[in-house]
Amino acid sequence: MNPFILSAFWSFIFTAVAGFCFVLKRQTKSELFFGLFWLVVAYWTFLLAFQFELMDQWISGFLWGWLLHAGCIFVPVLFFHFTIYLIGERAKFQSALVAAYLTGGVFLLLIAFSNLFTGEIIRHSDLAYPKPSVLYPAYILFFQVVGIFATWLIFQWRKAIKPESRKWLHLFLSVHIIAYLGVMDNYMFMYEVRIFPFFPYGLYGILPYAVVGSYAFSRLRKSNAVS
């Protein structure tokens, strides 16, 4: 198994466990949406890890590409959804959340009914990916804007939480940023850009996030009565 596929496989295992733990526990909405966020990451990394088996035996390359983006498009959206419950500002950002979900839906329709978003599936010996088309940079921008905005909201939330809890917030943000930077290789290699160690090892940044980030979030929630 090549290093990229192996990193996707372990990311799938770690995020699936984290996701099911939080969804099954779900004492609060923030726990529920944090769990759903992890399950969407698990779904996306599963499709990466088993891409060749799926396309060779089960589904077409077009369907694989559509399903893949059904996951990765909504990763930042669900993280934003989790964030507004974490910081207790759901009502304030409700319109922005709806807009993010609708934008993600539009991207999925573009994939299904046009060639403006992605084109043919490019297959190399070590990985496959949908060829980005003219509107694909708009999705990359969408991912960055939603993800960075949600991260900034959590960073700003440090002013409202108990001082003794800020170490957990800083720990959470640290592993979050490591994972965020690690997954950027998935966009770079679609444009034939491979920068070591982001490719092929970037996805390993998700593992400490799933473990350490989940623990830090649990400590934050308990110490600050998060909804």
Poorly predicted spans:
none
Series of H and E elements = HHHHHHEEHHHHH
Which percent band covers the strand fraction? under 5%
Biggest sheet details: 2 strands, antiparallel
Note the total helix count: 11
Number of domains: 1
Number of strands: 2
User: What is the average of the pLDDT values?
Assistant: 89
N-C termini distance? 42 Å
What can you see in these coordinates?
The structure is a single chain. This protein is mainly α and 227 residues long. It has a single domain, classed as Rhopdopsin 7-helix transmembrane proteins (Up-down Bundle). It has helices at residues 3-25, 29-49, 51-57, 61-72, 74-86, 94-113, 136-157, 166-183, 185-188, 198-201, 206-224; strands at 118-123, 128-132. It has a two-stranded antiparallel ribbon. It is globular, with a radius of gyration of 17 Å. The chain starts with a helix and ends with a helix.
What is the structure about, briefly put?
The chain has helices at 3-25, 29-49, 51-57, 61-72, 74-86, 94-113, 136-157, 166-183, 185-188, 198-201, 206-224, and strands spanning 118-123, 128-132. The protein has 227 residues and is mostly helical. A hairpin with a 4-residue loop joins strand 1 (118-123) and strand 2 (128-132).
Topology (SSEs and partners):
Blueprint: H1 3-25, H2 29-49, H3 51-57, H4 61-72, H5 74-86, H6 94-113, E1 118-123, E2 128-132, H7 136-157, H8 166-183, H9 185-188, H10 198-201, H11 206-224
Antiparallel strand pairs: 1-2
Helix pairs in contact: 1-2, 1-11, 2-4, 2-5, 5-6, 5-7, 8-11
